[in-house]
Write a structure and sequence with these properties.
The protein is built from six helices and three strands. With 145 residues, it is mainly α. The protein has a single domain (18-143), classed as Winged helix-like DNA-binding domain superfamily/Winged helix DNA-binding domain (Arc Repressor Mutant, subunit A, Orthogonal Bundle), CATH 1.10.10.10. A hairpin with a 7-residue loop joins strand 2 (80-84) and strand 3. Helix 2 (36-48) crosses helix 4. The radius of gyration is 18 Å and the shape is globular. InterPro entries: HTH_MarR-typ (IPR000835), MarR/SlyA-like (IPR039422), Tscrpt_reg_MarR-type_CS (IPR023187), WH-like_DNA-bd_sf (IPR036388), WH_DNA-bd_sf (IPR036390). It holds the Pfam family MarR. Residues 7-139 form the HTH marR-type domain.
Length: 145
């Protein structure tokens, strides 16, 4: 049986960690009666303010067709609203409503605490190393697309 290279081991460990983290985050977000896609759209608007649909799509990595469905659902729940762009009639801005802002102010700190707990046994230096390594891997992957 061939031996794993360190690159292959790193890949397998990364993918397993990613799967576990996705499940933890999905579980946490479900506590707020949301799906991950709902939360990521609200979170992008909460931190970045008013965005176009294209900007949200790029920020949250959800396909364009799906993003419209997510935005429609959140708009029906009165958590966000659409507004026309005065400079470009083709563009539509999306922003949190006061109700959406209030919800995120309530739940985001709890969500952040879950993430902080995941990384609590890792030093600041190790976190910086993880960030830098993953950026390098991501950039290399993008170059291969």
């Amino acid at each position: 049986m061939p031996e794993y290279s360190s690159a292959l081991k790193a890949f397998v460990v990364l993918m397993k960690a990613n799967k576990t983290l996705e499940e933890v985050i999905k579980k946490d977000i479900s506590n707020y009666g949301m799906r991950t896609s709902d939360f990521t759209v609200l979170e992008a608007l909460y931190h970045k303010g008013r965005q176009t649909i294209r900007e949200i799509t790029e920020a949250v990595l959800i396909q364009t067709g799906s993003i419209t469905y997510v935005i429609d659902k959140l708009e029906k729940r009165e958590l966000l609203q659409r507004s026309a762009c005065k400079d470009d009639r083709r563009a539509v801005y999306i922003q949190l409503t006061p109700k959406g802002e209030q919800l995120m102010e309530e739940i985001f700190p709890k969500h952040q605490q879950v993430i902080e707990e995941i990384f609590s046994d890792i030093t600041e230096e190790e976190k910086e190393t993880v960030i830098n390594v993953l950026k390098t891997v991501g950039k290399k992957g993008e170059m291969m697309l």
